[in-house]
Amino acid sequence: MGAERSPREHPTEGTAHRTERTRFQWRIDLSAVTEASWAIVGSVLLISAIYFVLAWSRVELIRDVSQPISAATGGLVTPVLIIYIPLLVVSIGVLFTWLGGLRVSDLGLERRDLRLGIAVTVIAWVLIQLAVLLSLLDAGEPVAVNRDWYTVGVLVSLGPLIGQLLGNALYEEVVIRGFLLVQLHKRVRRIWNKPGLALAAALVGSQLIFALLHIPNRLARGADWNLIPLAILPPFLIGIVLALVYYRTGNLLIAIGLHAFMNTPTLVVGPRGLGATYAVYLAVVVALGWPWFLEAATRTGLTRPTEQKRHTSE
C-alpha cells in the first residue's frame, strides 16, 4: 500500500507541491507530490464514510461521552474536536505517513506556510466582523455584543472555532483538498494532456465525494432522502470554492481558516448565518485576487520574495 515515487517526483529541499500554471495561475506543483496508491485513496475515503455514518447516528452518545471533557476544559474542547481527532490520527498518522509513505508536504501542510496562513486567517476573521457590523448598521439593526461572550464565557464561545480549526475544517481540507484533489489531478493530468479540463475533472470528482460524505450529517439533521441532492449541493459548491482557494494560494492553512469561518464564524456581534455568508464571499475574493494579496503580504514581510518565486516556478 506504499506510495509510488518517480525521479521527477522527489522535490528539492524546501520545495512543496505548487504551481502547475495554466492561463489562470495556480500554485500547485504536481510533479513534487508523491503519488499514493489507489489502496490508500480508497481506504481513507472508506474509513471516512463509515466513521461519519457511525458518528452521526450516535450524536447523543458522543455528546454524553464528551461532556465531562468539555466541562473539564471550560468548554474549549467540543464534541466536534473529539470526533475528528481519531480520524486525523488514523488518516495522517497511519494511512498517509506510515502505510502510504507520504510526507506532510504531500498533504499540503508546510511549516513555511504557517506565518502567512495564520495572518490571513486572523485578517479574514476581522474583515468578517467588520462586514457583519456594517451590514447591521446599514440595515438599522441594533448592535450589541453577542450574549454568549459574557453569559457562557470566552472559552465556550471559542470552543466551536477550535473544533473547526483543529478538527473538522483541518480534516476535510487535508483529506479532500490537500490529498484527494491533488491525487486525482495528478492522475488525470498524466493521461489527459489538457491542463484546464484535467483540473476541472479533478475538481468536480473530488468535491462530489466531499459532498457525498455530508449525507450522514444531512440525514441526522432531518433531511429527507428525496431532498439529499439539494442538501449536498451547498457542500459541493463550497468545496469548489475552497479548492480554488488552495490552488490559487498554494497554502492549505488559508483554506482551513476560511472553511472554519464558514462553519463557525465566531462573531462578536450579529447572527452566525450572516458571518458564514461573508466567509464564503471572502473565500471567493481570495481565490480571485490572491496575486494582489500576495504582493501586499510580501511588502509587509509576511512572506518573502524568494518564497513567492518558489510558489510560482514551474
The stretches of 5 or more residues where confidence is low (pLDDT under 50) are 5-23, 309-314
Radius of gyration: 20 Å
Q: Encode the helix/strand succession as letters.
A: HHHHHHHHHHHHH
Count of structural domains: 1
Global structural class = mainly alpha
| Principal-axis shape | globular
Question: What does the largest sheet look like?
Answer: none
Q: What percentage of residues falls in helices of 4 or more residues?
A: 55-70%
Instruction: Quote the beta fraction.
Output: under 5%
Tally the beta strands.
0
Mean pLDDT: 89
Distance between the termini: 30 Å
Number of helices: 13
Can you walk me through this structure?
- By secondary structure, the chain is mainly α.
- The protein has one domain.
- 69% of the residues lie in helices and 0% in strands.
- The protein has 13 helices and no strands.
Label this structure with key terms.
disordered C terminus, about 325 residues, globular, 13 helices, mainly alpha
Short description:
The protein is mainly α and 314 residues long. 69% of the residues lie in helices and 0% in strands.
Topology:
Elements: H1 38-56, H2 59-72, H3 79-99, H4 114-139, H5 148-151, H6 154-191, H7 195-212, H8 215-220, H9 228-231, H10 233-249, H11 252-263, H12 272-300, H13 305-312
